[in-house]
Design a protein that fits this description.
This protein has a single domain, classed as Metallo-beta-lactamase, Chain A (4-Layer Sandwich), CATH 3.60.15.10. By secondary structure, it is α/β, with parallel strands linked by helices. The protein has 9 helices and 14 strands. Helix 4 crosses helix 9 and helix 5 runs antiparallel to helix 6. The longest helix has 15 residues. The two termini are 29 Å apart. Strand 11 and strand 12 form a beta hairpin. The chain has a 6-stranded mixed beta sheet with strand order 1-2-3-4-5-6, covered by helices on one side. A 6-stranded mixed beta sheet has the order 7-8-9-10-13-14. Pfam families: HAGH_C, Lactamase_B. Belongs to the metallo-beta-lactamase superfamily. Glyoxalase II family. It is an enzyme of class 3 (hydrolase).
Length: 262
Amino acid sequence: MSLLSRIRVIPIPALEDNYMYLVFNKDSKKALVIDPVEPEKVMETSKREKVTIEGALITHHHWDHAGGNKELRALVPSVRIYGGDERVEEMDKKVEHEEMMEECGLKIHCLSTPCHTRGHICYSVTSGEDKVVFTGDTLFIAGCGKFFEGTGGQMHRNLNEILSSLPDSTLVYPGHEYTTSNLKFAAYAEPQNQDIATKLEWSRKRDGEKKETVPSSIGEEKMINPFMRVDKESIQKFVGSTDPVTVMINLREEKNNFRPKA
């Protein structure tokens, strides 16, 4: 996986297994924060990095992602808060699918990915050749979010049309640390996939070292994530269908009921 030369992304663990992120251009002192549910931790990180928080990108309205917005506003009154759902507290601007913005020396491409929530947004951020995407609870490493407010057809479009169209080198920063549990299901669904086996071994080691597993990449997700492999014969055989939307629905149901061994 290539190192970023211009963008710096700092994962900030929050709550039990959430991720917030501080992102900024390395030649700028201005930063964005993703899903700042624990703003004081974000402020500590920004001070350490000697950057000023100017904006917040909120992936969706759930409290464990947007629940810190009021506190962030109190700490940084001038902060600009972006989201895709009127239920996002303190939102200054509602963004739309394919909307392009520039903030803090970064180009931001807003991608509407409704399903986990109807107003979910993924944010593709670029600077020069560097490309990253913050996927909230739509795309996890080797997994995807639950279909709380949407359909399997929507999630199929989110993962296998919208996000999969990003360059394979795009680094993926999801909203939760679910990697090992997701890979256990992926290995169950596709036991002959050596890429999954290798990644699972690595992820377990990272867990043991109490280290994060982010980021992955779009290219890697196409190799290890069953929800982005709905066109593969092995996955289709596992769920008993060749229709991609049906495969997505059946995979999610299998994952919902999956009880992994230790």
